[in-house]
Amino acid sequence: MDPITIDKSAAVFVAGHRGLVGSAVVRKLTSLGYTNLLLRSHAELDLTSQSAVDAFFAEHKPQIVILAAAKVGGIHANNTYPADFITVNLQIQTNAISSAFKHKTLKLLFLGSSCIYPKFAPQPIPESALLTGPLEPTNEWYAIAKISGIKMCQALRIQHSFDAISAMPTNLYGPNDNFHPHNSHVLPALLRRFHEAKLSKLENVVVWGSGTPLREFLHVDDLADAIVFLLEKYSGLEHVNVGSGKEVSIKELAELVKEVVGYQGQIIWDSSKPDGTPRKLMDSSKLASLGWEPKITLKDGLADTYNWYLENVHS
Ligand code: GFB
Asked: Number of structural domains, the chain?
């Protein structure tokens, strides 16, 4: 199937437009001149309600759907609320994908996560590693939901030629991230903890785990760029990894956040907290071969995110 040409006036439904990914996609589409974005807050449209989602699609008939709505969280939230992570994500994606198909959406992009891959997948992780081994237990519930989304897109493409593609981003960060002290991902959690420690003149900051896990981080504006690139250029069965290609240890990340925030105290490691998967670097060579590459370095992205946090969350 060849990629369709997307008109800038096409009706584009960005599900989850207030979240980290959705808000970045809206910024990107707006800057490119897309004029007909369909945006609904959670209060306006409950994506877990099949009847509400179907009525929305029946009325507005979105031509393009970017499925960036999901229940997400860091290692602690995933480990603590497994029922919420599997149930809510399966509901949101099943409702949106099936209604998009039923109401003849021209193209849908489903967003997954690098945690779909086995805990001990070969590194860097190629797309072909999917379903080749057991998942990381702390986030298998979320991962199973996301794997189901990929498979649903593939099944609809095979059986009905529905143009649904899936992108698998690595660990993301940026404006509109969740800065909750316990339920967020490591990068926003540390930005907040080091900032508050600086203000309170604390001597120590506690960071979870051993510091040895390796993670790859991508600024969400780079992801939004890749999403639009894939919508315009890709129409294939297999999902596509979207990473920065650069990995850092959690210890290196903590040092970098400390530097960006300007905190002077010590770091203490809490080994009672889980490390999660030891390493998670994606092989994004497929996307590179299509002609896309990331632009934002971790240091620049961290500084940008810290500024956003200062202006919008905590001053
Ligand atoms: O960001 P994070 O929760 O995501 O944790 P995962 C990454 C690493 O940072 C782990 C350590 O080794 C944590 O132990 N860490 C250190 C911290 N301090 C903190 C802290 O204050 N908060 C957090 N959250 N971590 C998630 C999955 O796994 O990755 C999700 O649970 C999703 O499902 C996401 O896939 C991208 O990379 O471990």
From this structure: 1
Distance CA 35, CA 23 (A): 15
Residues lining ligand 1, judged by CB closer than 6 Å? 74-76, 78, 113, 115, 138-139, 142, 171, 184-186, 189-190, 207-209, 213, 215, 250, 273-276, 280
pTM of the predicted protein model? 0.96
What's the domain range around 71?
Answer: 12-177+216-244+281-295
Task: Say whether 142 is catalytic.
Answer: yes
Identify whether 182 is part of a domain. Answer: no
pLDDT tops 70 at residue 315 = no
| Whole-number Å distance between alpha carbons of 270 and 273 | 6
Calculate the average pLDDT of the chain: 97
Buried b (16+ CB within 10 A) or exposed e, 21-32: bbbbbbebbeee
Residue 106 has pLDDT above 90, yes or no: yes
Nearest-5° Cα angle at 21, 16 to 23: 70
Give the ligand 1 atom nearest the CA of 77: 31
Nearest CA to ligand 1 atom 35: 115
Per-residue pLDDT reduced to its tens digit, 216-255: 999 999 999 999 999 999 999 999 999 999 999 999 999 9
CATH code for position 153: 3.40.50.720
